[in-house]
Amino acid sequence: MLFQLPDHDTLYNALCARDPSYEGRAYVAVRSTGIFCRLSCPARNPKPENCTFYETIAQCLEAGFRPCKRCYPLGPAAESDSAIQTLLKALQDNPARRWSEADVAALGFDPSTVRRRFKRNFGITFLEMARLARMRDGFTTLSNGGRVIDAQLDAGFSSPSAFRTAFARWLGASPASFRPNARLKADWIDTPLGAMVAVSDATALHLLEFADRKALPKELQRLRAQVRGDLGFGREAPTDLIKAELAAFFDGKSAVFSVPLVLHGTAFTKTVWRALREIPAGATRSYSDIARAIDQPTATRAVARANGANQIAIVIPCHRVIGMDGSLTGYGGGLWRKQKLIELEAQIEAQQ
Asked: Domain check: are 110 and 226 in the same one?
């Protein structure tokens, strides 16, 4: 059974008492500041009429509130959750295991609760994360020149058809359709915010997306069409470069990316993407700000569509675009990632 929030007065009293028993189960959003906190936050207590209480982080983000920088409700919520930590360690120890809800229950956890907590903290369920971990092994095998049957076995699939179906659902095409000596090569990059897929030719980066992004299959299909199917597995020099630059970025050392890019889009979308790259790290802009910056002040909706069509995440920083009221807006990689990217860049700039 899901946790049911008590009434407003009970939760406000818990906030004033900094009651740790609500850790991970309730959050307070403060309208006067636009931020949300854990109930144990050490900040000064807000007025009760300014408080709205939510059950999940996702609800706070969807309502347009930003996470508090004192109690930092995003990362620590996962780090303090015993179920999440136990399952993440189990997945790390045995990434090839074919996890099921019965396995989760056998460890003493309620599958529906686990599903909700992983979705809230990572934007993906535990079972989806486990399947992605298995697919990673198959992807790596193919990237290293291995056979499809070897990739299937490394990914933990006993059925060739099941592997082809899962692979096609993930990348939009069967593994056999990827050419061995293609001009464009796709490879995998692990980051603290999840795995990413990079596609490069010998001189430039064409695509960089989080591997669990729902639009990834269609983006790869469009890219394949633009290069007439000339897409395979492997790693080119631009992929090595972006991997190194992402490592420096997530280490908090630099938000500068020098990797050459190839932009696949209309003249308008390319103009918007170039404007996004002009937003300083640690800063944010609204869609209307971008529209004015490209001298098309009435094109706010078109700017939003171009922003959403970006297929080179982080390097073309669409995560720096927020609502006019300062709230987070849609992000294909998940609002939780968007918030963490904004906060990381602010930390990097503060150290410069």
From this structure: no
Supply the CATH number for residue 344's domain: 1.10.10.10
Residue (of 87, 66, 71) closest to 23 by Cα position: 71
pLDDT tens string 50-69: 999 988 776 777 677 877 87
Q: Are 28 and 15 in contact (CB under 8 A)?
A: yes
Domain count, the chain: 3
d(CA 337, CA 61): 11
More confident residue, 234 or 291: 291
Among 37, 51, 60, 68, the one annotated catalytic:
37
| Tally of CB atoms within 10 A around 222 | 16
Asked if 202 and 338 sit in the same domain, the reply is yes
Same domain, 61 and 191: no
Quote the DSSP letter at residue 194: -
The set of residues, in sequence order, having a beta carbon less than 8 Å from that of 19 and lying 6+ positions away, is 39, 40
* Dist. CA 22–CA 14, nearest whole Å: 8
On whether the pTM is more than 0.90, the answer is no
In whole angstroms, give the CA distance from residue 190 to residue 285: 28
Percent of the chain at pLDDT > 70 equals 93
User: What residue numbers bound the domain in which 115 lies?
Assistant: 78-128
> Is 52 in the same domain as 98?
no
| Structural domain includes residue 158 | no
27-30 vs 231-233, strand pairing mode: unpaired
Side-chain-side CA neighbours of 121 within 13 Å: the count stands at 24
Tell whether 100 and 211 lie within a shared domain.
no
- Considering the candidates 41, 60, 68, 318, report the single residue annotated as catalytic: 318
Tell me, yes or no, if 51 is annotated catalytic. no
The encoded tokens of residue 187 equal: 């490879």
Q: Are residues 247 and 264 in the same domain?
A: yes
Which residue, 35, 53, 80, 21, is CA-closest to 339?
A: 35
User: For residue 140, is it within any domain?
Assistant: no
Locus of tokens 């915010």 = 193
68 is catalytic: no
**Per-residue 3-state assignment (H helix, E strand, C coil) for 229-277:** CCEEECCCHHHHHHHHHHHHHHCCCCCCCCCCECCCCCHHHHHHHHHHH
Same domain, 210 and 296: yes
